[in-house]
């Protein structure tokens, strides 16, 4: 697994051992970021269910202003911290070892780009977007991208957010939400 482009282009990232974490496949990550490539610079990013941190690191490498990485696993937080250091991006990041609900309940600054890659089949994308919306943590012109299993359903709307793109890559589905889109 490597950073695709930007300031950390080509840097190899560590991953987590074991079956409890499933890193995003590179072609899916590439598709995710090519669809928003000119909209990443300057954004405040949330990488929720961060795992190795590869999604938030890709955003930082492409010019995002700051990223919060949230994962409940101490091992994941150690890997994220090491990956940020290797990419020389640690000064643009905050890493939190806590449950996602605790993080969202305790933060007040809205995010411009939200990257969600939770365990599949548990409805966590829907729950997370709902909590982000309810707590006012979605900035104006936010982009929310959910990675789910291809059979997992996600709502067409969350308040002002509407699905603008939903693409299947084998057994993976990427769903993009934007504010005020038809």
From TrEMBL:
- Could you tell me the keywords of this UniProt record? Methyltransferase, Transferase
Its EC number(s): 2.1.1.171
Organism listed in the record = bioreactor metagenome
Q: Which gene encodes it?
A: rsmD_17
Keyword Thylakoid annotated: no
One GO term in the molecular function aspect is: 16S rRNA (guanine(966)-N(2))-methyltransferase activity
Which InterPro entries does the protein's record reference? DNA_methylase_N6_adenine_CS, RNA_MeTrfase_RsmD, SAM-dependent_MTases_sf
Could you identify this protein by its name? Ribosomal RNA small subunit methyltransferase D
Keyword field contains Transferase: yes
